[in-house]
Structures are given as C-alpha cells and as structure tokens.
User: What shape does this take?
Amino acid sequence: MPVPLHIPKYHFSCINCGRSYPSSEVVYTCKHCGGLLDVVYDFREMDAEEFLNSLTERHLSIWRYFELLPIENPSHIVSLSEGYTPLYRSVRIARDLGMRQLNFKYEGANPTGSFKDRGMSVGVSKALSLGSRACVCASTGNTSASMAAYATRAGLLPLVILPKRKVAIGKVAQAIAYGAKVIYIDGSFDDALLAVKEATEKLPVYLLNSINPLRLEGQKTLAFELFEQLLHSVPDVVVVPVGNAGNISAIWKGFVTLKKLGISEKLPRMVGVQAEGASPIVSALMNDNGFRPVESPNTVATAIRIGNPVNWPKAVAAIRDSGGCAVSVKDDEIIRAQKDLARGEGLFVEPASAASLAGLRKCLEEGLIDNDESSVLVLTGSGLKDPDVVGEYYEPPMEMTECPEGVLRYIGNLMRVN
Assistant: This one.
C-alpha cells in the first residue's frame, strides 16, 4: 500500500436536501429525506503536483490514488490488486466505423472479472474498519461475485440475495466458490435489493450495493486511470453500459475531481447505454416526463437487467451535466457487438459490456458522436461471466465421424473459402 501524502478527510452529503453526515457514521441514504448520498472531500491539504509525481512510485491498483479515496487508515485496505486494467486501441472496429480514435477500457481484467472490484475493495475496506462481521448485497451477478471475494479475503461473512433463474451461472458459481451464502428469491433484482435494505436496517450486516456511496468512490478511479493511460489527456466521449446506474456517475465524478484539483482542464461527454427491455433512464431523458421504473425488465444482457436503478438521479445528472446522452439498443445489436469485439479485437466480453459498442454505433448513426472525436468504450466484464449466451447465439462446434480424413477435408474447404 502507498505511503500517503496525507489522510483524506470527507463527509457524506445528501444530493437532494444537502444534509451532512460524518464519515464515521454508518449511513447509506439520507435519514431526513431518503435521498442518495455523495462523498464530499476536503482537498485543502492536496498538492496536485506532488500527488502526480508520487504516482510514479506507486503500485498499479486503485490504491495508488489513496488520497482521493474514503479510507483513513491504510492498514484497513482489502485489496486483490484491482484496477489499472488494460486500455486497448481499436484497430479493426475503429477502421470499420471510420473513427479517428477508439479505445476499449477492459474491466474484465479485474480480479473477479468485472468493474465491481474497484468499488468492492473500498466498500469492504470500510466494513472492516467499522468492525463489521458480515456483508450483504443483492445482485444480477457481478456484484455478488466481487463482494464474496473481497469479504472472504477480509474474513467477513458474505451474504448474497439473487433473483432465481435470472443470474448467469458463471457469476453464481463465483459467489459460491468464494464462500458466499447465496439466497435465491422469487422476484426481480429490485425485490432482492428491498430485502437487502430491510436486512441492514434490522441486522448488524453491512450493505454493499451501489446505494452505498462508498462503493462508487472506488469505481471513479477508472477516470483517473484513463487520464494516466491517455498520457495526461481526457477523451471527448466515454460510453458506459447502464444497469443500476452507479458506474457512469462514478466515472463522471472521477473526471470532475481531476478538474477540481487542477490536474486536467477538460471534461468528457458521458454516454449511457441501456438495453431496450430495461431502459428507464433513456426514457426519462428522452421524454422529460420524470423517472418511471420498468416493471418487468428483460434483456440478454443480464448485468444491466434492472428496471428500477437506485442511482438513476446521479446517472441522469452525470449525463446532463456532461452534455452527453443516453441510448437504448436491441438484444440482437448487443450480440452482434459482442461477436465483433471478440472476432475483430480479440476481446470476449459479457453482453452488458458489448452494449457500449452497440450504443456507439447508434450514436454515430444518429449524429450524437462524431467520427473525429476520441472515444473510450468501457467494457465492464469478462465474457466468461455468461457462457450460456455463446451456446444460444453462436454457431455450435463441428462434429466429425471420420478422423483424420474428415477433419482434413473440412479444414481444406475452410482454407479455400477464406
């Protein structure tokens, strides 16, 4: 862990009514109005130049940004070297789309295979510092896998509540393997989250869904990494899949933090992408008629199959404040994008991740993004998270009864065609 230049000071503030709560208080939403909380820092002790210079000596994980994260004691950090995931420059897809610069931020390289590890490292670290014995979350899959891994590493009990038959088996398998106590319920993710909220109100367990503002603080580090990986520059556009809606607001906050500190001068436009069967944020922004949950969300992209995202006010604010937009895409467009990323760039991502490429295509077609703008697509998770999709939507393996004759004949025919 880094030797900090100073210990970060922060408090919680309600984004709705402005009420404040000290950092030592266990609070997830405003006790006065029920609004979402933000983590507000006191950066008066921060020397931006000194901070930037110190990065050259630090380990490549989210904790290289210790002074910008809400943990007061480095000894409480629970880490699996999450973060500092690869940034890949597109070759084939950028050429096919006629784009000047397109990059992929591949979050599948995190320890449990998704972006959730960034926030979970911070959230579990806080749980440990508070003396918690157990952590709980509802999940569409990735959150459960990540929470189970980090809670187990910290010696805490992971409790996971999942909607039955609606979570990809690869993600459930991870949570079970890490030692989580998994509870299936008949209902949706939103029903599971309601059960989690009630559990944390009545039992001594620590909530680790993204309604907990500390989770999002870890996820904002993606913006810091992009700034470093792009040689101290900021892209024009960042495209993010949107499910429970915390990630897009977290990444935006990261870029805003860099500008507040005087480290960068530019801010990107944030583009949120939802599946058509689960797109309440797109509807709210397009129709300007307020937010309305989707009662029965449905999409092949299970990680973003959420009809009532708890962080929707933060996501809408991030999109509007950045001058960005939100679009929805069809399931067949998502599967096409998944295949293109795998076969065109060598990046096998889960369907929710591929939604970012499908959304980019739609934005280009509708003139919402210009081909000359530098764009980054956030690929939120590994394709190994949801292997059943390949069996359902891809061509099956070829079976041969004659070997080696049939194999040689088949390969020869392929070579002549290609």
Q: What stands out?
A: The longest helix spans residues 246-260. Residues 87-112+215-392 form a domain with the Rossmann fold fold (CATH 3.40.50.1100). The two ends are 51 Å apart (CA to CA). The longest strand covers residues 157-163.
